[in-house]
Model the fold of this input.
Amino acid sequence: MDITRVDQIIDKHNCEANSLIQVLLEIQSEKHWLSRQALERISERLDVPLSRIQHIASFYKAFSLVPKGRHEIHICMGTACHVRGAQNVLSAVEDLTGIKPGETDLDLKLSLETVNCLGCCALGPVMDVNGQIHGNLAPADTEEALKKYE
Done:
């Protein structure tokens, strides 16, 4: 993301320090991660110490300080999904993508994360890709579900 776009997002929020999290969320949404250059510009423009911004960006799971894939896969590992075979679904996704939770493929196409709950317990096991829920998954269903994101 170029600095001009970062400035546009900051300007949209009137350069107010109390809009820091919203600015971070918008940049994260567009670029899928928060670069050092973007954080430094935010610090400069909002007059917020870089250390505070880095603390916030590393504290909240919604933010990433490393590049993420264009498609973010979240596998629910909560109790309802777990007892219905979430680990087998996760293993199938790992085999298909070649990445493990917390990793992104080299093409920056896919990132994989596990989460504790997606709020769809009746549909477990559940996989969320870019906000689209795939429920009642069997390991064999994962390949078909992921084809949509190639």
Remarks:
- The chain has seven helices and five strands.
- Residues 3-59 form one domain.
